[in-house]
Amino acid sequence: MRNFLDFEKPIAVLEGQIEELKRGDSGDAETDWEELARLQSRLEKMIGQTYAKLTPWQTTQVARHADRPHMVDYVHALVEDFTPLAGDRTFAEDRAVIGGLGRFRGRSCVIIGHEKGADTESRLYHNFGMARPEGYRKAQRLMRLGNRFGLPVITMVDTAGAYPGVDAEERGQAEAIAGSIQTCLEIEVPLISVILGEGGSGGAIALATANTVMMLEHAIYSVISPEGCASILWRDGEPVQEAAEALKLTASDLLALGVIDTIIAEPLGGAHRDRSATIAAVGEALENALETLATLSGPALKATRREKFLAMGKNGLG
């Protein structure tokens, strides 16, 4: 059964009517098929109109939708012979960040990404995609491995942010994130990042300081969540819509600001409505980006990546 967001209630009602008509037995098949075609056309139009004018807060809800494909879904569909590599060689294995080696369309690559989990059990197992320091140190280890063997690095971002627990702070969360950003800037292989759903704070940019940063159409990418922003600025978590608007967290805003390089279009009604089409679109975008970056030398890849992010600080984003 499909999970509907609050603003999708009219869509839910119409889909219910369509399902009821499909199950019905009115005795007049021709009339039923005509009505079904009319309702289907109306549904597509309603979905298109709704998603064409999403507010930033509604986009945030779509980005967090439980049915969106997750990192493991992309790996299973796009990567052959994926071999996960665990541990940071310092403290422990972090299950919020998955990383390993595999072949993407014939190219050997390092693949790293946040995994939120798809149900209660897996979400607890992966800590809702919120990595501890060892997750970012594992990412550093794998990026250096890719650099050593000349393998492109693909990262997939989907996290509300790095884990804020006391144990993470005790083990150097800030240093681990900074170290991951530094490693992104140092390697001399193609580095491509895709924001799949949520791109939250330093926990996201730790994997997204890339040559090419791509973002799904209804994903979000921000220094803080709308709820966190509202609680800090207004001492109240209620004005989340105003906070989401001010944060400029949508793909179109970030493309205009130069924070990301490419927007990957989602199927009508969002990635959760057609997971396979979304995964295919991400695969095409990744292949195009890899082909472009393959023409650059290692020093050029490193230099252009560093200049890209230094320019954001020098020129500002406003």
Structure description:
- Helices cover 52% and strands 16% of the residues.
- With 318 residues, the chain is α/β, with parallel strands linked by helices.
- It has helices at residues 9-23, 29-52, 56-63, 71-78, 120-125, 133-149, 166-170, 173-186, 201-208, 226-233, 240-247, 251-257, 275-293, 298-315; strands at residues 79-84, 97-104, 107-114, 153-159, 191-200, 212-216, 220-222, 262-264.
- It has 2 domains: 6-53; 60-315, 2-enoyl-CoA Hydratase, Chain A, domain 1.
Write the layout of secondary structure elements.
Elements: H1 9-23, H2 29-52, H3 56-63, H4 71-78, E1 79-84, E2 97-104, E3 107-114, H5 120-125, H6 133-149, E4 153-159, H7 166-170, H8 173-186, E5 191-200, H9 201-208, E6 212-216, E7 220-222, H10 226-233, H11 240-247, H12 251-257, E8 262-264, H13 275-293, H14 298-315
Helix pairs in contact: 1-2, 3-11, 4-13, 6-8, 8-9, 10-11
